Amino acid sequence: MSTTIDVSVRAEAIGSDPMAVVEEISGWLSTPAEEVDREFACELDRLRIAVSVMNSDAAAGDRRAHYCQQLLLARIYQLTMQIPEQPTAEGSVVVHEVMRLLEAATLAAEDDRIEPGILDQAPAQPKAYLSWLKGTARAHRVFKHPYYQDFIKDHATVDDLRNYVMQESVVDGRFDDLLAMMQVGTSGGAKMEIATNFWDEMGNGNQAEVHTHLFNKIFEVFEITSAELEAGLSANALLSGNLAVLLSRYRTFYAEAVGFLGMTEWLVPDRFVQVVKAWERLGLPDVGIVYHRLHITVDAQHAAGWFHNVVIPAASSPAMRRGMMRGALWRLNSSCRYLDERMPTTDR
Amino acid sequence: MSTTIDVSVRAEAIGSDPMAVVEEISGWLSTPAEEVDREFACELDRLRIAVSVMNSDAAAGDRRAHYCQQLLLARIYQLTMQIPEQPTAEGSVVVHEVMRLLEAATLAAEDDRIEPGILDQAPAQPKAYLSWLKGTARAHRVFKHPYYQDFIKDHATVDDLRNYVMQESVVDGRFDDLLAMMQVGTSGGAKMEIATNFWDEMGNGNQAEVHTHLFNKIFEVFEITSAELEAGLSANALLSGNLAVLLSRYRTFYAEAVGFLGMTEWLVPDRFVQVVKAWERLGLPDVGIVYHRLHITVDAQHAAGWFHNVVIPAASSPAMRRGMMRGALWRLNSSCRYLDERMPTTDR
Fold first, then answer.
1. What does the pLDDT look like over B162-195, one tens digit per residue?
2. Contact check, Cβ <8 Å, B195/A192
3. What pLDDT digit, counting tens, does each position of A131-160 carry?
4. How far is A180 from chain B, CA to nearest CA, in Å?
5. Given an 8 Å threshold on Cβ–Cβ distance, is A185 in contact with B100?
6. Closest Cα to residue A48, out of A107, A6, A111, A106?
7. I need a labelling partner for B346 at 20 to 30 A (CA). Which of A126, A257, B84, B115 fits?
8. What is the residue range of the signal peptide feature (chains A, B) (predicted)?
9. Does B216 touch chain A (CB under 8 A)?
């Protein structure tokens, strides 16, 4: 947070390859937090600039910088999403500051993509607000995206589907934990709705029907390893996972998380119908598609419950209306870029 | 994290009243994080010293410093446990660093109270480990503490009970959220056990039986307001709540959270039997005791399930064995100090 930075430090940082910055900071993540803060605090001025350069390059359209930005944020988030076997840098002040720079840039990039003025158009009456939110989503290019409606349904190969589930794992593979995190501090009907979704994800208490367990069956069908997984994720897949974690972990982003995760569940059924068609077309093992079949039904119910019990009661607050729409648009826009990128030939 | 600090800054900080430090930092918590980091980063050197002085005074036995330390940490934790109506300082780098200083001092104080060498005595065989852990707890002064066995059961007045539930609210009033947080990143049987506990806290989907809702009925019986609540909490009650949040929010403390929350649930039934006796003795409204009656049964089941499905499978790892016992001892010791303090005449 220093305001004066040595010119030579600045020059050195600007010259760094963003991947070198990612690897340098990643190297600390398996070091205990106190040690990181003792040993590497002296590196903070340089890193603050290096990460800021990465962020501004990403904002200017540099794809490598964007990838590095999201990869580093995803690795930092793993500290808060996985139980480690050894002490980690979780909680480190140095890592926290780097993370905050990455988060601020990630959110600013999403806000820049929201059409100016749209958040001010939200109707004040809760039911009218919900109709408007759904109408905006239905009119969005992502709503019936050709990636699902055409490519996945009719053309995707086994390898395409394999790649598809890898990219989806950043949200689907830990949806239960995202729900658990985002419900902290809620009460009443909203808490019960989110808790019910969580319990459904837990197979309503039946170990064999836990959704993340079913999702992992697909990984077994395709023999995907965790090492392969990280290396195979695109910048926009990493971004989808990072946005979901970011919004779920901060109480100040509760409204945005409601919009983001609600939209995620609402878009699922129609998408997964196409995935099931592809699975059947390719004759893949039935055990691997249970998860998708289940979510065609369950997510339609979840989205309806979410809208009725979480969105509508919250929509009496202007700040909540604005936040929920902001989160919904972050999901629609980021999902659209992600699907565009995954098309074999794009119209971008 | 600067290593050189101006002498006059140090002198100024040492002279500060700890409550003035608490109020200064508390004043920022309702300011957006980016603004706090922009405006108050320049205060960080001074505050780092002021908080360190507060921490060392607390460690040396200064009760006021200890109270201030735990009050400030509790207020910072509220940012991560409550959904705000306005933007807050949640995530602020400055606040994060202050929080880390408070957390480190809080944990060091608990570790100092663990008998040297005890963690090395843990048997390696999982079932023997569990017996040893329970045996250590049974031999602990807190196990049949006279606060419950004598004072609550036979002597407590309505006002004593009223004060009792206020102090307990820091854990009981948000046990569902603590479980939701501490299960992030788990899988298999451990995840299911914690999720089942969470779902029980949610009344298994029945709004009227949500445990935090039932707990709040007691608050209604006693007409306790949230303003009165914070002012009424003792340092050791604040500490109990802070330890529970601290251990639940970090993945690196998963083992400690298992020990801490498992011990919390295991101690409940025998304690609540005494609370129910007091309630009946005083002829208080029945609606306010449903929560305690329920937990006499349900927490006995939870503790058994927790030991069997979370502790025993984890106990094959030496690091987990050590962490779980550490967390269990933190609970036993901190609960004992808290109960000692609450006795009308103490034998300290």
1. 998 888 888 888 999 999 999 999 999 999 999 9
2. no
3. 999 999 999 999 999 999 999 999 999 999
4. 5
5. no
6. A6
7. B115
8. none
9. no
